Amino acid sequence: MPDPAALREVALILRDGDDVAVATQDLDEGRTLRFPDGDRTIGTPVPRGHKVALRDLPTGARIHKYGQVIGRATAPIRAGDHVHAHNLGMDAVEHDYEFGTAGVVITPAAEVRTFQGYRRADGRVGTRNYVGIVTSVNCSASTARMIADQFRGPLMDAYPHVDGVVALAHDSGCGLVPASEGGQILQRTLRGYATHPNIGGLLVLGLGCEMIAVQTLLADLDAPADTLIERMTIQETGGVRATVRAGTEVVRTMLVRLDERRRETVPASALVLGLNCGGSDGYSGITANPALGHASDLLVAQGATTVLAETPEVFGAEHLLTRRAVSRDVGQRLLDRIAWWHTYVEAGGGTLDNNPSPGNKAGGLTTILEKSLGAVAKGGSAPLTAVYEYAERVTEPGFTFMDTPGYDPVSVTGLVAGGATVVCFTTGRGSVLGGKPAPVLKIATNSEIYQRMRDDMDLDTGGIVAGTTTIRAVGEEIFEAVLAAASGRLTASEDLDLGRDEFVPWQLGAVT
Prior knowledge:
The protein has about 500 residues and is α/β, with parallel strands linked by helices. About 30% of the residues lie in helices and about 20% in strands. The protein has 15 helices and 23 strands. It has helices at about 140-150, 180-195, 215-220, 235, 240-260, 290-300, 320, 330-345, 360, 370-375, 410-415, 445-450, 465, 470-485, 490-495, and strands at about 10, 20-25, 30-35, 40, 50-55, 60-65, 70-75, 80-85, 90, 115-120, 125, 130-135, 165-170, 200-205, 230-235, 265, 270-275, 305-310, 385-390, 400, 420-425, 440-445, 460. Strands 19-20-18-17-21-22-23 form a seven-stranded parallel beta sheet, with helices on both faces. Helix 1 packs across helix 5, helix 2 packs across helix 11 (about 410-415) and helix 6 crosses helix 14 (about 470-485). The radius of gyration is 24 Å and the shape is globular.
């Protein structure tokens, strides 16, 4: 990579041979930039975070960023021009996939790091101690929220060792075939939350006549033996008011017992970290994502588990992940999920290159190829040890992948259902996503959004572009922040009490 020191204040060249640089400030028309191989005059204004052409490119030319193809020129481009949706389009994705050829090895850490967590009877470790009210159907959602609302604010001061009561309410549970793909995904998600190590007490609440019934969710539930479990249906209990009264008493009894539990020192290897992003911009693949990738590698070196997600947002960069797969079977499993997505979006009249979003484009991202190349940086460099379906329990240590949509709350819901006990979420446009029962650390890709939304952000990675810090240093900062959050330090979203409305299971299939 060229030394960007002299250019850092105006633009960054990310790899030798790239056709574009990334502007680090707004560049006005007519301004002359001095690059290592010659001067460039800005032909059209280039906003901060967007791409500027380093050389003349004819129509049809493949354009490179990160050393990879991000699309083709749809019009002639002159050196110094703004490169974006008006002159850059998708390129056909054709990869010769390799499996396990990257040769990456993560050396086990010399120092064993620890955090303060809740040991569970099944050997897993929680980072929070919640009572969860899992609803079997949307018909019981309002009642669940009414019960949870009885324990908000100062009422929880009597239980200082319990993090709260969360109603896990959703919009489904009936009008679908339980054995269908959508029905199975919903049940897997609900059961994943019900057995989550951050849930110490569980009330499963239903209406009483739904297709996915309370007893269905509880049948053979693989919850830790020390999880306090109760069940209730509105119809049997006597209606909403009676259920709120009865449910409140059940939860209050749980709180007394859960408040007796204490955190203890456990190795960092017990952590399961979800890796997600939302509201990405042109800096995401330069600052926050690679820094989070370094933190992921540090956790893997400790023996922990990290989970990358958002399948539509690795499309076009999946070849970089298959090269890191520990086996052909693991790499092929990823390709099979991408093939499923092609069929799924085509059935809905779309294609995978419908991404990026309008906000992503305003931030400087043009094609899904460009977005994906930046997104996979969250996964660091460790070998890919496993690929999971949505909300499937994550059991393999090391760097793994889960098939989720790119829609933030749905993706994070799947990660938490799979067992993520902390989530790191990078954002350049300013996401306000939170999470319960797993804390969410929000990492700003640029200092401007960090300062503007200071109460919503936990970490600022903008110094990487400014040259005041490095990817490695910020990665270490993220690693320490994860351990602190796992030990009970509140994240910005927890301080705002976010997370009640971000439980959004993925809905598939017909509703009859």
